Amino acid sequence: MNVFWTFSAVLLLQATMIHCQGYSSEQASQCPEKHGEQTYPHPDYCDQFYLCTNGTLTLEQCGNGLLYDGKGAAYHHCNYHWAVDCGSRKAELVAISSPGCEYQFGLYSDGSACSTNYVKCEHGSAYVLPCEPGLAYDDRIKKCNWPDELVEVGCNPADVIGFNCPDKIDPHSVSAKFEPYPRFALPGDPHRLITCVNGHPRLISCGEDSVVDESSLTCVEKESHYRKRK
Prior knowledge:
glycoprotein; three-stranded antiparallel β-sheet; Protein obstructor-E; chitin-binding; signal
């Protein structure tokens, strides 16, 4: 704890010297670590941070739409603003918009409530990226999600998965053994299966070296499965 507060005091002193006198080689030697790269929060501003590179101290500015939290990796040690808790530090957020991008850095929906794509903005340029198969972009949590978690915002999971969960299931079938989340084989796809959650389908991937055993509706190793069939 004493080390932390001592370093904080050093940072405050360095910040004052940087703003008042400019940067000098003497100040550069004040980084706690002389090798590698380390970052530290600015005491007042959430969109700035201190960077130590092999003992050299610089004051850095996060990109537009980004803030510093010490663990963000969206771009240059900063994280998306909606993912950062600034505490008492001030967050200066003024949108610099460009086509498809509210901020220069960010993640956005492409406008559909059930889209399997999303928009990633970097330096003001918008890139359309796909979700993993079976997922749809959830703008509320800023990442891809199960489509059945998006029903309340207008998503139809069956449209994403291409499968409708049956209303009734044979109680003696393999599918029924997995109630309340019955499973089904996906026709034409040996590497994925369907599990129904509250009447909506989810696509489950077995993995590169596994396939679906239709007799048990479980994922098994590919080699052992084909050896068993022989």
